[in-house]
Amino acid sequence: MSEEQNEEIQAEETEQPTTDVVEASEESTEEEQGEFELVLEGEESKPANPTPDQALYHKFRKEKGKRQEAQQQVSEAQKQIDELRQELTALKGGQAQAVPAAQTTYSGPIFPDKYSSDINGDEAKYQSAVRKYYQDVEAEKAQKQQQAEQAQQFHQQVDAQAKAMADRITKFSQENKVDLNATADAVANVTNEIDQLTGIESSGLYLFDTVGQGSEAVAFYFSKNPGAFAEFKATLQSDPTGMKAVTKIAQLSATLKPNRRKQTKTLEPDQPVVGDGSSQTTQNWQKKYDAANSMSEALKVRREARAAGVTVN
Known about the structure:
Helix content is 62%, strand content 4%. It is mainly alpha-helical.
């Protein structure tokens, strides 16, 4: 492992300041390292440290999310209980009816019946119907093959977008000295919430990937600023095409800037684990990275590889 790689690892594994995002009007002039944030140009900075009320509010917000999830699970369980009670009441009252066997609806080609009403034994009509049947079978096969290829292309595209976002998040965390895993989780939460809003798989990742470099900072900003994220979601709902949302991401990426506030508590840096630097080790880490099935998994592999003194792309 070279000296440059060692310096990079040490820089990555040094103090990980608490992250926050506020809006400020002036760039930080302090050269001393401290708490990282993203700010919008032309807006005033918030207090360096949250008040007890603010800290409690953020804590309650997290707890509220957990409670909402728990309440949803309880509601689903209660719904199942109510259904079972209705079935039990029907059984006790002798109102239960036999449940018919599930039938599958087949919508594909059906081999013609020579003596059906539309053929009625006519040999010429029958042979024509048979030929059409085989043509329809081939057409259905071709359609299914096309759908399978489209699905494969979609998953390949999503995988490429996830890898690109992972690269941007890694660069963002290195440049701003923020925790890689925390940043990845923040971005993932934002993209997942967009997916839930649109009902379209990986739509959030697609929107940010359309903008490219700098979009990871916007996602990070949204994760720390619920009000700004709410406005963005309203924009997305008003324009299902997503064009306004993409424009909004691009505008924010151009105006967001890093700002580091003085850190009151310094954490002891972890000691990096250095690998042997052999080509075989590098190949093994690269294989693990290429085999990653998600953005979070790719980031995890990259972080572990870097800690072992290996760079993967």
